[in-house]
Amino acid sequence: MTKFDVSIIAAGRDVSNARLQRVMASCLAENLSIELFSSGNRDDVPNGVVFHTLSKGSKALRVTNSLVAPWRCRGSVLFTPDPEGAISIWLCNLLRRRPWVVDVREDYRLLIEDRHWAKGLQKFIAIIVAKFALFASARADATIVVDDWLRPERAKNRIVVRNAPDVRFLPRVGQADATPRALYVGDVRASRGLWSMLRTMELASDWHLDIAGSISAIDLARVIEWKENSPAASRVKFHGTLKPADSWKFASGAWVGLSLLESTPAFQRAWPTKIGEYLACGLPVISTDLPRPREVIIASKAGATVDYETNELTAGQTAGILNSWAENPAEYAKVRARANAQVETWRSAASYDRIATVIANLAKSQR
């Protein structure tokens, strides 16, 4: 039976997930053999990774897949980026001990407040799962967190690996196209600024928008209706779920990156990864006025912040900035120059190879 250095259990992630792709790229650079349990397109799996396809479906199916996968794994080390995965590996290890690593990229408890389905009994169950996941994550052989403030605050071996830009997936910095075009990369849902972005396009008639990411199920019907009825529909392209290199190719020639997140409890504390990636591509950024984006944008002067109270207010302010840039190329050129001055800073920030090193050391201990 074939053995692997690491088995990745990501029942809650599509194989195209950016953080997952970064981890796999770093492990492959370390010459680690990988098997992956995830959903998604086989064509998005990096060469050399053995892929076990998991079906997408309900939350119950996601939990079931997470519980079953650890018993199927043939890796010396288990790795998961999912709260359900952390719980299932911890339970499995009560009977079948193997070293394992968890990658905590979000505050599970705060994230619940960002989900429209989190009400009543569903919210109560989600909170219990989040607490259990944090308990399990603290007991991993290595607990990777993407930020200092993220829980668990104490763990057996807690390592901070920030969600910085990974140049392996970014295009070269170039010039802006003749036609003004904005870019958004990430989850496509209301709380991530979906409706503010679409309304912005209706108010900025000279602009086009590329959206790279999967549309949430709860917003899909409304997006279809918008595409059928909005006068801006022909200027907005939804590209769907793509692996990072394919998502970021749309940065070439773009004028600006958008990050119009709502002011949820999680986003008040989080650092939106896409902002660093926009700057690493030389793109100015327009962000809602959240604490950490505000700090970077004010310091760099490589973009602007807009208020968030309603989608209409955010869209109106964003469209005002975009229209001003389109009408005054010299004004935009100054902002772009300041964004270009940030490129090297953000392109040298990644440290994902630390995750691969941790996994490699644990795998060696099992030989």
Range of strand content? 15-25%
Distance N to C terminus:
16 Å
Number of DSSP strand runs: 13
Topology pattern, helix = H, strand = E: EHEEHEHEHHEEEHEHEHEHHEHEHHHH
CATH superfamily descriptor of the largest domain = Glycogen Phosphorylase B
Number of helices: 15
Largest sheet: 7 strands, parallel
Write the CATH fold name of the largest domain: Rossmann fold
Low-confidence stretches: none
How would you sum up the global shape? globular
Query: How does the helix and strand content classify structurally?
Result: alpha/beta
CATH class of the largest domain reads Alpha Beta
What oligomeric state is this? single chain
Describe, in plain words, how this protein is organized in 3D.
The protein has 367 residues and is an alpha/beta fold. The chain has two domains: 4-162 and 351-364, Rossmann fold; 167-347, Rossmann fold (3-Layer(aba) Sandwich), CATH 3.40.50.2000. Helices cover 43% and strands 18% of the residues. The chain contains 15 helices and 13 strands. Helix 1 crosses helix 15 (353-364), helix 3 (83-93) crosses helix 5 and helix 12 (311-327) crosses helix 13. The longest helix has 18 residues, at 120-137. The radius of gyration is 21 Å and the shape is globular.
